[in-house]
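Before relying on records like the one below, remember that each one covers exactly one chain. Contacts with other chains, cofactors or solvent are not represented anywhere in the record.
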Amino acid sequence: MNKSEEFQKEVAENIRQLQNADELEALSVEWIRQSAPYNWSYNFSWLGRPAIQFPNDVWALQEIIWSTKPDLIIETGVAHGGSVIASASLLALLDYTDAVAQKKQLDPLSPGRKVIGIDIDIRQHNRDAIESHPLAHKIELIQGSSVSSDVVQLVCEKAKDYNRVMVILDSNHTHDHVIQELQAYSPLVSETCYCIVYDTIIEAMPEDMFPNRPWGKGNNPYSAVKEFLKSTEDFEVDSEIHAKLQITVAPMGFLRRVKK
């Protein structure tokens, strides 16, 4: 066993132990509760655009994209655009590394891999910022409900042009909406690729934390994931990701497609 293999073995053992670190997990959840009133996740940006995500989760996204190498990412929820730009930049890096490996000249404006961002309300100032971003050529925005039949049909048609598809769900967080998104978009996910369902952490938050929102305990992405997994054997929860991150908005939300 070489030094690199020894290190990877050590990492695997760390993660195995973290899967049983109940006290640490409880502390992580409590930290998320305590930080929520400060809108901690609002404080970060990716390549110039606000990205309302936990940094840990974006790091996990990078690991997933690098290991599974999707050529299309479908994201529901656009907001300020930082998340779709993060995905686009990581896909651009895949395009670049492919070109280097194949000793080919990369056209920096070639669409190559792509992100489709869906939102029911893409505000004009956000659209302008995304469409003027240097990575705009790798992003297609669709305004409309992510669960409307016309949007789903449009996205399914576009997905036919790609071989490796990944999905990220981060729009309306009610149970009914998320389960509809899972039913609509999970069939597009390629084998060994992921469907990431963000904000399953809502289930672990106090009942009074979301007074002005239609979601809460028992009615959120976590409850939708639990229902979805009862109806399919095609996906499994990648519990190792949650274990190593600890501080994440997506416990039980990293779903890996195991068969298709």
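The beta strands are 45-46, 49-50, 72-76, 114-119, 139-143, 165-169, 194-197, 235-237, 254-257.
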